[in-house]
């Protein structure tokens, strides 16, 4: 396993992070808890030392899975959690921002209970909320830090302007941004963060499974499927066909390396110098072990250049 220092927190974090959104169950089809726990154990045993979760992932369900998985291992693992999204009552609309102290506190305290811990290593404000002053949200999370419930503070899904604004109230040590070969819209935010000694975590690193190579035909998604609910562009035309064209290059590299396509995609992500750690969601041991093996080798500069060229020519930025 490779490790990097996560910004100004000066904590060593594994290049891969266990992502748990799918473990929450909502919008991801059926999930077997025992398989998820076994997957977490497999990644921890392979050297991964960081888990990312949030109460909104299954309305506390992913926290419960993580809590069960880390029993007896809490001192061996870094935990990041997030609050600031609220789920709609009907369950068929996207989550919406709510960074009010009352809602944040409700979610955070329940997360700690479900995780079976009295603190988390990183707490990230999940999303900017235009309806709540940044200062109010900041006062809330700084209080948790003062109480010892949080070691380091950060943000998620924040652009540069919002990071600068929130940075007036809290010491931002980490930012989490969506980033993959097919979604590079937040690249400038991540580069800015690295320049300011802020650790960068990337979510959606495998584009919701599209960059594993397992999906080759446009799927018919259920109404409540996350990829449909949030209208992911790469699961719609013409973007989907563009990604399929990109996969031809990834297939070539994977075949020459004799590795799964997912390992190529993850290597490309974690080899970017502005990326500290990349989240990858897993639901079984097979996926966990295959993903961890990506850290046993690296893409050459020539392979990186070839992939970057293919990205520019197919999906762009």
Automatic annotation (TrEMBL):
It comes from Faecalicatena faecalis. Residues 16-311 form the NADP-dependent oxidoreductase domain. Signal peptide: none annotated. Keywords: Oxidoreductase. This is Aldo/keto reductase.
């Amino acid at each position: 396993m490779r490790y990097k220092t996560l910004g100004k927190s000066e904590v060593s974090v594994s290049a891969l992070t266990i992502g748990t959104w799918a473990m929450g169950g909502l919008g991801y089809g059926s999930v077997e808890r025992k398989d998820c726990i076994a997957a977490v154990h497999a990644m921890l045993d392979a050297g991964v030392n960081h888990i990312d979760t949030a109460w909104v992932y299954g309305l506390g369900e992913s926290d419960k899975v993580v809590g069960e998985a880390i029993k007896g291992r809490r001192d061996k693992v870094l935990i990041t959690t997030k609050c600031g999204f609220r789920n709609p009552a009907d369950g068929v609309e996207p989550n919406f921002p709510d960074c009010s102290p009352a809602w944040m506190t409700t979610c955070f305290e329940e997360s700690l209970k479900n995780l079976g811990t009295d603190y988390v290593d990183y707490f990230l404000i999940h999303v900017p909320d235009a309806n709540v002053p940044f200062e109010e949200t900041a006062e809330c999370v700084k209080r948790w830090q003062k109480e010892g419930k949080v070691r380091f503070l950060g943000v998620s899904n924040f652009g540069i302007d919002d990071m600068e604004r929130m940075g007036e109230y809290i010491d931002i040590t980490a930012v989490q941004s969506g980033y993959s070969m097919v979604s590079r819209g937040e690249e400038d935010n991540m580069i800015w963060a690295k320049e300011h000694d802020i650790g960068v975590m990337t979510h959606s690193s495998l584009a919701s499974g599209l960059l594993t190579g397992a999906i080759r035909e446009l799927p018919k998604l259920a109404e409540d499927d996350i990829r449909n609910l949030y209208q992911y562009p790469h699961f719609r035309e013409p973007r989907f066909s563009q990604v399929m064209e990109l996969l031809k290059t990834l297939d070539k590299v994977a075949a020459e390396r004799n590795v799964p396509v997912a390992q190529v995609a993850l290597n490309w992500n974690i080899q970017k110098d502005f990326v500290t750690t990349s989240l990858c969601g897993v639901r079984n041991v097979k996926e966990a072990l295959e993903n961890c093996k990506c850290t046993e080798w690296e893409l050459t500069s020539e392979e990186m250049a070839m992939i970057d060229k293919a990205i520019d020519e197919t999906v762009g930025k």
